[in-house]
Amino acid sequence: MTRGAEHKEKRALLGLEAAEISSLLPPSAPAYTARQIRAFCLDGREIAEMTSLPKSLRETLSHDLVALPLTTETVRISADGSKKYLFRFLGGDLAESVYIPHDYGASVCVSTQIGCKMGCAFCASGKEGFKRDLDPAEMLAEVVAVNRDAGGTAKKRAVSGVVLMGSGEPLDNYDNVREFVRLLTAEDGFGLSERSVTLSTSGLADGIRRLADDGSRMTLSVSLHATTDEARSAIMPVNRRYPISEVVSAARYYFEKTGRRVTFEYTLISGVNDSPADAERLTALLRGFPAHVNIIRLNAVEGSTLKATTLTAAARFAALLTKKGLPATVRRSLGSDIEGACGQLKRRYTGEDGE
C-alpha cells in the first residue's frame, strides 16, 4: 500500500467553514464545537490532539476525517536556518515547502501544483512533469504545518509572509490559488494580510491582468530571466505563448490597477543573459513604472549544463542597473545545501533521506 493511502478516502477539515464542519458533527454537539474544531485545525492540531473535545467525538471524527490534508514526511535543515519540508497529501502525492527565516520575520515558500507544466531549463520542479493542481486546503495546510513546526498558532503566527514560489505555476491554478489566498487572509481564519503574500509567475500575461482586475493586493513577482525573446524562449518555453513585450505590458497593467510595485526575478546564467547589453535592454524594458529587479545567481539543478554567473559579475550587473535608475538587488540564496533554493524543489526524497 502506498504511504498515505490509508487516508485516501478521508476528508480534511482544514479549509472548511464552521457551518460546513457543523454539518459533519452529530446533532448532540454544542453549537460552538465547529468553531473550536476550525480553530484547532488552523493551529495545525490533529484530531487526537483536540483534547477539549469529548473522546467519543474525537473517535467519531477520526473514522472519516483528518484535520490537515497532509502529513510531514521529512524536514531537512539548512546551515542558514531555512527548512525544507516534504509533504505527503491524501492519496500519496508529494510536494515541498520551504521555511525561510529573515531578520524581519519568516516566510513560507508554498507549492501550488504537484509538478509543473512550464518546463523552465533552470528549474527542477517540472523535470518529472505535471501531475495535478493543489486545492486551497492543501496549500493552506502547507502554511499551517510549517507555522506550527516553527512554534506558531493561527492567532500568534511564527510566519509573517507567504510566497507562492514553490513547485508549480500559481496562475495556471488560478481559481484554487485565489480561494487559498481568501482562506489565508480571512479575519476569522489564518488572518495574514494579503500584502504579505507574494505571487511569483513565469509570465502568464492574461492571468496577471485577471489578477489585477480581481482586486488583488498581493505583491506580484514576474520571472523574466532574459531580455530578448530568442534567449527567453530557449530557457522558458512559456515565452513562445507570452513573449516579453506582453509580460511587461501585463505587469505595467498590474501596477496601474493595484498601485503595487512589481518585482522582476532575473536569474543570471553565465553567457546567456548576464552581459552589459542585457543590463541595457533590461533597463529599457522596465523604464517608466515602479519596478524592482531581484537578481538571483543560478542554483545547481541536476542534469542541467547551465552555469551560474560569478558573485562578482552578479554584483556588477546589479550596479549597472542601479546606475541607470533601475533598483536592483542580488538575492541572498538560502537553503541551497538542502536543495531548497530557487529552482531546486523536486518533490522526492534526497540525500540521507533518499530513496
How does this structure look, described?
It is an enzyme of class 2 (transferase). Specifically methylates position 2 of adenine 2503 in 23S rRNA and position 2 of adenine 37 in tRNAs. InterPro entries: Aldolase_TIM, Methyltransferase_A, RNA_MTrfase_RlmN, rRNA_lsu_MTrfase_RlmN/Cfr, rSAM, rSAM_sf. Its main location: cytoplasm. The protein has 355 residues and is of the alpha/beta class. It is 30% helix and 20% strand. It is built from ten helices and 14 strands. Helix 10 links the parallel strand 13 and strand 14. The radius of gyration is 21 Å and the shape is elongated.
List keywords for this structure.
355 residues, alpha/beta, ten-stranded mixed β-sheet, two-stranded parallel sheet, 30% helix, 20% strand, elongated, disordered N terminus, transferase, rRNA (adenine(2503)-C2-)-methyltransferase activity, rRNA_lsu_MTrfase_RlmN/Cfr
- Average pLDDT confidence is 89
Main β-sheet, in a few words? Answer: 10 strands, mixed
Give the DSSP E fraction (strand runs of 2 or more residues): 15-25%
Spatial strand arrangement across the major sheet: 3-4-5-6-9-10-11-12-13-14
Task: Output the helix-strand order.
Answer: EHHHEEEEEEEHEHEHEHHEHEHE
Low-confidence stretches: 1-5, 334-341, 349-355
Shape: elongated
Total beta strands:
14
Distance between the termini: 17 Å
Helix content: 25-40%
Radius of gyration: 21 Å
Q: Treating each run of at least 4 consecutive H or I residues as one helix, how many helices?
A: 10
Strand-pairing-aware structural class: alpha/beta
